[in-house]
């Protein structure tokens, strides 16, 4: 007899976190390990962000905050979205969560349930299907073109959409491919979402790492379609993966629904990390450009060295810090 609820067996554990734990164990045992499983910047969190957190603690800012985040943080996110992404939203259309992952999870929980289908493009970030599985809905996979920055195979997409399809998850720049979709591809995805009245999740957690063209947010490309949800995070942009600070912008009623769920699970995001996030979003942005320059140099090196290997073909990823090479049989 199964002791645990069904939802536990519906979901796979995080493979990347398991590998990271293994790397930690090996390191503790004295083995020299390079952990390439979990996607995180190796830079320290910039000093002014750390200082804001230290100040928050010294000031006794160590209590619960409002469930969807501090009003100052939601206002800071609105300022950032307008400044960097040309997205105009009110703070009431924003929820701050414990990481971008938590925002995606909360949104899936608020929107999907058994009987629903959600489109995910392959190759995908390992957590996307699991968020969907957790809700009882079914992930439906659609292929992409590796020679075209892993943009969707739109003909296949049309055939996979049916009466049960409720959402579509877009992630550009992508984990794990580094692919950055063109404006045209995003416009086409929006048109399809509109036609079928789908929730369009735009996971933009690598927005600061688009190398070859300026990053454009999906919601800025079409500000009229109210079902576009923007997910961003401090994790990769400000080297803050452990702080757990991310957010979503979308319709106010969805923010309220997600806040209700969040209020009964984590109560609120961590108070100190919220102060740090305000410093990150409103403070000096040159740190972001410096880290991006370093990642671009690494992209050039790894793509060149991979292509020098027999049997490996590696396209330039347009963003993030991943490569997705083709391995040819020799
Ligand atoms: N989305 C993608 C595509 C990711 O790769 C990650 C982290 O690896 C996240 C979201 C979540 O990041 P966080 O929860 O640290 O904000």
Q: Could you describe the 3D structure shown?
A:
With 330 residues, the chain is α/β, with parallel strands linked by helices. Strands 1-9-8-7-6-2-3 form a 7-stranded mixed beta sheet, with helices on both faces. Strands 4-5 form a two-stranded antiparallel sheet. The longest helix has 22 residues.
Identify low-pLDDT runs.
none
Radius of gyration: 20 Å
Structural class computed from helices and strand pairing = alpha/beta
Percent of residues in beta strands: 5-15%
Mean pLDDT: 96
SS elements, strand count? 11
Considering the chains and any ligands shown, give keywords for the structure.
two-stranded antiparallel ribbon, alpha/beta, 13 helices, 330 residues, binds pyridoxal-5'-phosphate
Secondary-structure map:
Blueprint: H1 6-10, H2 15-28, H3 47-58, H4 71-85, E1 94-97, H5 100-111, E2 117-121, H6 127-135, E3 138-142, E4 144-145, E5 151-152, H7 154-160, E6 165-171, H8 183-196, E7 199-203, H9 218-221, E8 228-233, H10 234-237, E9 246-249, H11 252-263, H12 271-282, H13 286-307, E10 312-313, E11 326-327
Parallel strand pairs: 2-3, 2-6, 6-7, 7-8
Antiparallel strand pairs: 1-9, 4-5, 8-9, 10-11
The structure holds pyridoxal-5'-phosphate (PLP).
């Amino acid at each position: 007899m199964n002791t645990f609820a069904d939802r536990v067996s519906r979901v796979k554990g995080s493979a990347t976190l398991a590998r990271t734990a293994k790397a930690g164990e090996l390191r503790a045992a004295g083995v020299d390990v390079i952990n390439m499983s979990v996607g995180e910047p190796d830079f320290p969190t910039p000093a002014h962000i750390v200082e804001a957190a230290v100040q928050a603690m010294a000031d006794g800012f160590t209590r619960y905050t409002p469930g969807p985040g501090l009003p100052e943080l939601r206002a800071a996110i609105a300022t950032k979205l307008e400044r960097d992404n040309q997205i105009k939203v009110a703070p009431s259309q924003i929820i701050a969560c414990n990481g971008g992952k938590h925002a995606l999870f909360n949104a899936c929980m608020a929107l999907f349930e058994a009987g629903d289908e959600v489109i995910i493009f392959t190759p995908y970030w390992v957590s996307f299907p699991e968020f969907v599985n957790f809700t009882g809905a079914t992930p439906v996979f659609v292929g992409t073109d590796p020679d075209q920055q892993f943009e969707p195979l739109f003909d296949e997409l049309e055939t996979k959409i049916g009466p049960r399809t409720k959402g579509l998850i877009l992630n550009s720049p992508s984990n794990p491919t580094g692919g950055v979709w063109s404006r045209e591809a995003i416009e086409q995805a929006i048109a399809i979402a509109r036609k079928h009245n789908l929730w369009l999740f735009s996971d933009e957690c690598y927005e600061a790492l688009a190398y070859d063209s300026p990053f454009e947010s999906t919601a800025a490309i079409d500000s009229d379609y109210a079902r576009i949800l923007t997910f961003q995070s401090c994790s990769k942009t400000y080297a803050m993966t452990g702080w757990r600070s991310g957010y979503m912008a979308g319709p106010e009623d969805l923010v309220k629904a997600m806040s209700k769920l969040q209020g009964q699970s984590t109560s609120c995001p961590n108070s100190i990390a919220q102060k740090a996030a305000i410093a990150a979003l409103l403070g000096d942005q040159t740190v972001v450009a410096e880290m991006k320059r370093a990642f671009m140099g690494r992209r050039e090196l790894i793509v060149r060295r991979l292509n020098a290997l027999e049997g490996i073909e590696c396209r330039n990823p347009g963003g993030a810090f991943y490569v997705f090479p083709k391995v040819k049989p020799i």
